[in-house]
Amino acid sequence: MTRIIKSTTTLFAGFCSFAAAVGFGFLLVRYFTQGAGLRVFGFYFGLSSLTVLLGLIRVAGFAMAAFLCVAIGIGLCAHGLVPPSPGAGTGGS
């Protein structure tokens, strides 16, 4: 019974990680549609190399967060779906 609970919990954590990746993807798309940081400092600077750099850093951060969440979700789901080996958890060889 313990293995079933562990597998279910691991799968649930993997699906939550996928949901977080979808959330980061939604934020990234929303960030692109709203101008991608063209006015980071308001009306003071307008479009400059600094605002483009900050926008690029934000886009890269959202993309890396989404990628990391997907990678963690894949690992958790795979760990929850694969059955344990016959000698696993016995404490010896």
The residue fraction in helices comes out at: 55-70%
Question: What assembly state would you assign to the polypeptide chains in this entry?
Answer: single chain
Uncertain runs are none
Mean pLDDT: 80
- End-to-end separation in angstroms reads 23 Å
Number of helices: 2
What descriptive keywords fit this protein?
93 residues, mainly alpha, 2 helices, elongated
In words, what does this structure look like?
By secondary structure, the chain is mainly α. The chain has one domain (2-81). The protein has 2 helices and no strands. The chain has helices spanning 2-33, 49-81. It starts with a helix and ends in a 12-residue tail after the last helix.
Task: Provide a brief overview of the structure.
The protein is mainly alpha-helical. The protein is 70% helix and 0% strand.
